[in-house]
Automatic annotation (TrEMBL):
<keyword id="KW-0413">Isomerase</keyword>
<feature type="signal peptide">
    <location>
        <begin position="1"/>
        <end position="21"/>
    </location>
</feature>
<dbReference type="GO" id="GO:0016853">
    <property type="term" value="F:isomerase activity"/>
</dbReference>
<keyword id="KW-0732">Signal</keyword>
<dbReference type="InterPro" id="IPR012336">
    <property type="entry name" value="Thioredoxin-like_fold"/>
</dbReference>
<dbReference type="Pfam" id="PF13462">
    <property type="entry name" value="Thioredoxin_4"/>
</dbReference>
<feature type="domain" description="Thioredoxin-like fold">
    <location>
        <begin position="60"/>
        <end position="244"/>
    </location>
</feature>
<protein>
    <submittedName>
        <fullName>Protein-disulfide isomerase</fullName>
    </submittedName>
</protein>
<dbReference type="InterPro" id="IPR036249">
    <property type="entry name" value="Thioredoxin-like_sf"/>
</dbReference>
Length: 249
């Protein structure tokens, strides 16, 4: 059975914990690559690197200079407390000090842990590529409220999982309060329903997550890859020195 089928048929009765520990595994240590200091790279005239988004072949959303000498990838779960903590503590300095300089690009890829994750991962893709990062950050910065809504109506959620595939995640989003959350942030309810009724795109997100996690040995979130090297699950306090060691200093 594919990952999508497993998630689509799974129960949503298990509670979602909102903690700061790495989600899906114990925190791991990784050795960061070493590099010489790299120079700032100016963005094209009239643009800023922090506003530049590229969708990659791996279905990641790369923020910043596509040719940055230091490439950072995060595998994050939108229902993960540790990922929310990273967004709260690290996202602003990561963008302002590193991405804006053109030295570091930051690519976010979703790792899917459950049906809520999968629903949210489709919703943050529901607008222009430039909205992916702000919407993801909004989920993380409001994660307590998001998860509270996701657990509030178990009977409706269980009923949602019995729907046909093209309506299942629409019903999950409705029951969990996700449609209202995203409508308040620029994704209309009709737009969200259209996105969530596209079963093929949702299946692709789930199966990409599973395939890449296995290939790259991503066992928890948030996990980071710096210039192709998996450095494991990190906080901003431990990740920043790794970026500097790689040359962003």
């Amino acid at each position: 059975m594919t990952t999508f089928r497993q998630i689509a048929l799974a129960s949503l009765a298990a509670p979602l914990a909102f903690g700061l520990a790495a989600c899906g595994s114990e925190p791991t240590d990784g050795e960061a690559p070493e590099g010489e200091p790299v120079e700032n790279v100016a963005a094209p005239e009239g643009t800023q690197w922090v506003d530049t988004v590229t969708v990659t072949e791996a279905d990641g959303y790369r923020l910043g200079n596509p040719d940055a000498p230091i490439k950072l990838i995060e595998y994050g779960s939108l229902t993960c407390g540790a990922c929310a903590n990273f967004a709260t503590t690290g996202m602003e300095p990561l963008k302002e000090k590193y991405v804006a300089s053109g030295r570091v690009s930051y690519e976010l890829r979703n790792q899917i842990h459950n049906a809520f994750d999968l629903t949210l991962a489709r919703l943050v893709r529901c607008g222009a590529p430039e909205s992916f990062h702000p919407l993801s950050e909004q989920v993380w910065l409001n994660l307590g409220a998001v998860l509270e809504g996701a657990q509030a109506n178990q009977q409706a959620l269980e009923s949602a999982m019995q729907q046909a595939e093209d309506q299942r995640f629409v019903a999950v989003a409705e029951a969990a309060g996700f449609l209202d959350f995203f409508a308040a942030r620029g994704v209309s309810r009709d737009q969200a329903r259209q996105c969530l009724s596209d079963a093929d795109s949702i299946e692709a997100i789930a199966n990409n997550s599973d395939k890449q996690s296995q290939e790259l040995n991503v066992t928890g979130t948030p996990s980071f890859i710096i210039n192709g090297r998996n450095v494991g699950t990190q906080s901003w306090a431990t990740l920043e020195p790794m970026l500097q060691n790689a040359g962003a200093r």
